[in-house]
UniProtKB/TrEMBL annotation:
Pathway: Carbohydrate degradation; pentose phosphate pathway; D-ribulose 5-phosphate from D-glucose 6-phosphate (oxidative stage): step 1/3. It comes from Ectopseudomonas composti. Residues 185-478 form the Glucose-6-phosphate dehydrogenase C-terminal domain. Substrate binds at H174, K178, E212, D231, K336, K341. GO terms for molecular function: glucose-6-phosphate dehydrogenase activity; NADP binding. This is Glucose-6-phosphate 1-dehydrogenase. Belongs to the glucose-6-phosphate dehydrogenase family. GO terms for biological process: glucose metabolic process; pentose-phosphate shunt, oxidative branch. GO terms for cellular component: cytosol. The active site is at H236 (proton acceptor). It catalyses: D-glucose 6-phosphate + NADP(+) = 6-phospho-D-glucono-1,5-lactone + NADPH + H(+). It holds the Pfam family G6PD_C.
Amino acid sequence: MSIPCDMLVFGGTGDLALHKLLPALYHLHREGRLHADVRILALARSSHTRESYQALAERHCRAQVARVDFVNETWASFAARLDYFAMDAAQSADFGRLAKRLGRDDERVRVYYLATAPSLFEDIAAHLANAGLAGPAARIVLEKPIGHSLDSARAINAAIGAVFDEARVFRIDHYLGKETVQNLMALRFANALFEPVWRAGHIDHVQISVCETLGVENRGSYYDKAGAMRDMIQNHLLQLLCLVAMEAPVRFDAEAVRNEKVKILEALKPISGLDVQDKTVRGQYTAGKIGGHDVPAYYFEKNVDNDSDTETFVAVQVEIDNWRWAGVPFYLRTGKRLAKKASEILIQFKPVPHRLFNGGEANQLLIRLQPEERISLQLMAKNPGKGMHLKPVELDLNLANAFNQQRRWDAYERLLLDVIEGDSTLFMRRDEVEAAWQWVDPILQGWHQHYQSPRPYPAGSDGPEQLQHLLERHGRHWAE
């Protein structure tokens, strides 16, 4: 069970709070993971009463939580924790009212979850400090993106750091809360089988893919200023790359794990200038079909400029300039309105030095994050019957079946509990965020300097045609 605390959610009427945070907190409550003295206060400008906000929250939680998990009596006890306070996060006077509402208690843990636009991060931190609400037990949670460039990320980090010391800042990336992502560390560092071959001498290349069938949905105004590079590559995919490539930490704690991740980010070979033409592919979806339904082109989406040149697809060839990974390319790709939804990591091992038998090639380790969480090792085995004809077969670990769990924890459940308990192992440190931006910024500048506009690709396809050339010129191909 967690410790007593106040969980304050800025942006309490937004999609993140209603679709992710409150359902996650409900599940933690349902399973007895929250201390009896955990209080939840949603903050937003809308003029809700406590009762009207609870009704709004119940409606969204019913839609997000499985029917078997939503119990009216359980919801009633959860709603007793839930309150609402109408305020404008940009107005310092409203924080004075909030301070009166909460009362002065520097020893009580207060978690401020900023489910707001990043442009409000600096102001909220300053207003909390001025109102006396940033005491030594207070913690702040920042959703990505942390800025839109290295300079803006440094400015946000400096403003937050002026109020909260680093140990009390939790920069959240929900991908790091996924069960399979954490199993990647267990796979690497708890099994002697993989360590001897987890290096350049045995691995041909690595693919990290996060493919979505959805478009920008209701995020057009944000996404059109960000694009796939800032929205996905700079955080989610680089974090996955770090977990694949990092050295074993000396111990499993926040600082040791994050030290090793920073080393990988600092070892990334820069991509700048004309390199962007050879090592990146930038795309934008046009009209097409998804699941048999017509969908519009990106530039016709809500709150998107009709002449937008924002990328909805990015693929990048990444190299890590260190002893373990020299010469091994990492291929990252992410995009919207693609043919299939899948998030996965593929480790392609090198072929055997001398081929004795007829058959295909295997030697792959596939770590799938969604739609299902599973780990499979593809090996070569003999086809039944006469002769030595081989085919790939899978040693398959379905995590849900292996542990006989009726319900998998959502990433936000795990991460929210970590924040309450003060465990920052699965959160990004300030220097991690800035190191990622230091690598990403030259790519964005290279696209601008060399007029590399997004290549069109039909919705429902696998991405721009140029995607295949990124691997095929080296005799490789993308995993299906």
